[in-house]
Amino acid sequence: MLSERMSSLTPYTPGEQPRDNTYIKLNTNENAYGPSPKIHEFLSGFDIDRLRLYPDPLSRNLRQALADEKGVDTKNVFLSNSSDEALSFTFYAFFDAPRGNLLFPTYTYSFYPVYAGFYDIPFTRMPLADDYSINLDDYLESKSCGVILPNPNAPTGIALPISEIKRFLDSYPQDRVVVIDEAYIDFGAESSVSLINDYPNLLVVGTFSKGKSLAALRLGFAIGQEGLIQAISTVKDSFNSYPVDILAQHIGVIAIKDREYYQEINGKIMKTRDEFTKKLDAMGWKTLPSKTNFLFTRKAGWSGEEIYKKLKDSGFLVRYFNQEGISDFVRITIGTDKDMKSLEATMDKLFS
Ligand SMILES: Cc1ncc(COP(=O)(O)O)c(C=O)c1O
User: Fold this and answer.
1) Which of 90, 118, 172, 303 has the fewest Cβ atoms surrounding its Cβ within 10 A?
2) Is the per-residue pLDDT at 19 higher than 80?
3) Which long-range contacts (CB under 8 A, 24 or more apart) does 236-241 make?
């Protein structure tokens, strides 16, 4: 009954999404605060009859708003149902076996090996430095069909400065695509979008799920030179020519325009993150320096799984990774100040 391809398919496993509210959920890097209150006004006045018609296939208003926000032209903007979808099209459009392996960090977003498997793209996991940072010089040493990395990286949370990315792009062959996945860019790292005019092989992928607190809307994007955007648009139009839906098109514009609100909530998250990191330091935890809305941390004598289980029993959901080399870490999403205070007290009690 199944195709032969199905036998080798290994899907991505997302973090737990419990259906009740009994846990303080700090396991999937959702924003601690709600989306712009202006979205509420829009939804309560929305004319439901408009759902009868297909949406604008070019999402013109949203593309214009995003282009303005990022300081690029609309021809440089591609919209998708989530950044996962943009990433999937990217893998299909730019990476293939004959030109070498795709390179990405050993510890990184676990969807990358899944897409590589799905599209039959050979890949190499590149070791991180001892401090868990990415050393891009290593990526120049072997023949590759492309490079993908999140900046900041996940689950480490560590950001590369844009000067490092620029230096790398200056040496990497311009006929191979470099994808920078900026899912967490709104929490303090430098965006590479300003480099796209200088590098025809740079594609920056982003999402409304984290910094814009709209994970349920499934809205993502990619930004690059026109040739790259046309290529992923061709892939998209071979799957589904009508994304993104009408609600996402409107809500995306409202979110982009409410800059002040998002600066406020994301600023609060960064402050809470930095304060919580200090609290963890004082309690003897070793935490990697984060420019995201999560922390990757460990405590000597405990495995990630043990920490996860003890916290779950106390009502907190965090995430651990059963992967050699990082199995003693847990990844903790930054919640509200109230949640983090209560987590701090629990961690102090459980792991002293
Ligand atoms: C590094 C990274 N990229 C992309 C995504 C996907 O985001 P979304 O599909 O919600 O846009 C995530 C989600 O957690 C992520 O951590």
Assistant:
1) 303
2) no
3) 236/78, 236/80, 236/89, 239/89, 241/57
